[in-house]
Amino acid sequence: MDSLIYLLGGFATALEPMNLVFAAIGVLLGTAVGVLPGIGPALTVALLLPVTFKLDPGGSLIMFAGIYYGGMYGGSTTAILLNTPGESASVVTALEGNQMARRGRGGPALATAAIGSFVAALIATVGLALFAPLLVKVAVKFGPWDYFGLMLIAFVTVSATFGSSPLRGLTSLAFGLWLGLIGIDQLSGQTRLAFGVPNLFDGIEVTTLAVGLFAIGETLHVVSRHLFGQEKPIAIKGSIWMSREDWSRSWKPWLRGTALGFPIGALPAGGAEIPTFLSYTIERKLSKKPEEFGKGAIEGVAGPEAANNASAAGTLVPLLTLGLPTSATAAVMLAGFQQYNLQPGPLLFVQHPDLVWGLVASLFIANVMLLVLNLPLVGLWVRLLKIPLPWLYAGILVFASMGTIAANPSVVELLLLVAFGFVGFLMRRYDYPIAPVVVGLILGPMADGALRRSLQMSLGDPMILMQHPGSAIMICIAFIALVLPFLFRGLAKFRQDED
Amino acid sequence: MLKPSAAGLHRPTLIIGIALFAIAAITFNDARGMNIRANYGMGADAASYFVAAFFAVLGLGHLIAAFQPGIDAEQADWKAFGWVSLALAGLIAAIWLGAGFILGSTLLFAFTARAFGRKALVKDLVIGVVLAIGIFLLFNKLLTLALPMGPLERLF
Q: Does B38 sit within 8 Å of A188, measured CB to CB?
């Protein structure tokens, strides 16, 4: 019951006029940047972090919620109107959505995506509000050994289980862990891999890494492959409203997509790709008009879009309750929290319930705003898609480097940013996944700390990890998930690319 | 997209494998030089040793993979790639030499646009200046973030 009172308090905060303005700015910025081709939600959040630097934590978290949901929504608009989805979670949306747009049904496609996203995010955010306090109750009892087991699962599932090849995924993870070592160790004060460079003592900034890998790496990759023959967005003809038939064909896929997306997003193995693919497959099987699939079936947009947004809310469950990011976007969000010295996890619910529930309430408000603002503004978003690519990418680079030097004004930081950009280019060129690097950088030091704290409590006996059932089970799961793909190579059916 | 390559030695994989061994060696060496010891359990060096070993195993995996049929990366346009690199170098040089954010961003914008096939360099330089001044005013004045100052910035 406490959480309901806090949630109402959260709404009281979020509904203050100034905070509503922050939410609206967040939604608009998030959508505008998310719509740009080649920019997924992770990069959207990373690029817009500096904008929120100087606000108070409450206001900027609210803006943040808007940016997050706005970025997700923007991705689907790109996928429907251009055939170049900005992120892998929208790949499925592009399959049917783009076909609908080509057949002059772009309006209903955008509408079912927007309303489906709204319904899914609404249900999933309710799920988050109900489920998070329960998980927090369990998580307060977690010892460092349990956290260690949990992080092992996250490492393995992010890098080895679903990637194109376990060797590549693990190499990306190792690079992230290596970057995590750099700097002064928090437990002992020992400096690791800083080579006497003072700027490295504080460690590598997550936002610098994410912006370098995603923004600069992507730009170098696109320019090197001459991928800039620009596609024209498909004009929206006719009504943007859905017909009675569209509604009746959409509402069940919305609910099924939500039911798939939220739980899978909340698992440590989360991510939006798997639920969107599953939803597409299921809708195709259940549809009364399966022959329309591939030619613009509205179910193929409604289901995956709902799954995508529900899983986005789902990833917030482990992020807020355990401090565990399970996707690149969640990792960047975590960096955003840390910038205000907030550490998500069970303690945050105890110490700053107002902030947490203010954020949850803002998610509801951002969601409503998206629905109200986006469909009428669709003309504006289409115009954004028409920005010539040379200016678009030049602008992305200017904004990306600006964010980094504004956060940390030094040449070393800029050099790191550019170095990460070149690494990101090489990783894209040779097909190494990017998300494990970001997750490794954040979770590596946390896992290191958790393991060492466990061993301090057991006076150095490593068996402590096996004596607690929770950690023993989780370590076994992580081990099985690591070994399975090597045993059954065909099992890695879902290729998880990220933005 | 990536294409399957003919059987034989796969050079990129081999080079990445060797680079992984190099990182493993650096990390191992760094860990050996650590002098703060933990009383119980693991010290700060344990994670370094673990990561070094992890890299060595992955390096070995890459060496094995290099002798199996792999995938070849696509042809790349290195000239365009060079223009973007030049654009980034321009920004770094401008910040390093204290020429300021506006000049650096202008070079970054114009050269990147050039890389993507724009020919009107002067026009892009003008757009870059306007964009950079706009960002500078917005962030330095309105949001009070400290962007690197140079002669141009001091005029405002």
A: yes
